[in-house]
Write a structure and sequence with these properties.
This protein is of the alpha/beta class. It contains eight helices and eight strands.
Length: 227
């Protein structure tokens, strides 16, 4: 049974639930590409700055949809291993790191396209809200959590429309709060819970981001030390 018409609808539903929690000084971090339209709806509702966390899945050789882990960019790239899948595929940590190097090149390409000349929005002292369109293995979100934690937020919230039950349980133990609209008993893929789950291309992401300020007035005040 499909839960959401599209990513925008899912974002509005999440935004309504988050607004009730009234997070203090929120900043919204989207995982591209699919998380961008979801996160935009949340950022608008909370009047929060929006930034991106560029995360790439590291696929098992010959089975690219099976995540051996994920990598997120930054001064020191973070690689999160899916140990069960690595063990089953016979992949050593060094092999996963080598595979991750190729994904970092794609991350660099996307950063140049999506965020030309823009610095990351600070998370220091804020509530960091991490958003994607769904969670399957959870490897990408785990990498995103590790990256955001380096930015020293006061609190981390994961907000996702739908998540696999096992991954939801893991993520719940990694952050301060989680918000999942649907944790189904049966889960094969994120797309089965959307009527429209088309693959977003770079042009769609760039167009969507062009209409969203990367920094709100509140964020600017935080950088100057005023409140």
């Amino acid at each position: 049974m499909r839960s959401f018409e599209n990513r925008e609808m899912a974002g509005r539903l999440l935004a309504a639930r988050l607004a009730l929690r009234a997070p203090l000084r929120p900043v919204v971090y989207a995982l591209p590409r699919g998380g961008v339209p979801v996160a935009i709806e949340i950022a608008k509702r909370l009047n929060a700055p929006l930034d991106l966390l560029l995360v790439r899945k590291i696929g098992v050789p010959g089975q690219p949809e099976l995540a051996a882990g994920a990598v997120v960019d930054g001064e020191r790239p973070v690689i999160i291993l899916n140990e069960d899948i690595c063990r089953a595929a016979g992949l050593a940590e060094s092999e996963v790191a080598s595979l991750g190097a190729a994904e970092l090149k794609e991350i660099e390409r996307r950063r140049a396209l999506y965020l030309p000349g823009k610095d990351p929005v600070p998370a220091l002292g804020r509530t960091a809200i991490l958003v994607d369109d769904g969670v399957a293995t959870g490897a990408s979100m785990e990498a995103a959590i590790a990256a955001v934690r380096r930015r020293a937020p006061d609190q981390i919230i994961v907000a996702v429309p739908v998540a696999a039950r096992s991954s939801a349980a893991v993520l719940q133990g990694l952050v301060d709060e989680v918000l999942f609209l649907n944790i189904p008993e049966s889960f094969d893929a994120v797309g089965e819970f959307y009527r429209d789950f088309h693959q977003l291309d770079d042009k769609e992401v760039i167009a969507a981001l062009a209409n969203v300020p990367s920094e709100s007035v509140d964020a600017k005040l935080s950088l100057t030390g005023r409140s």
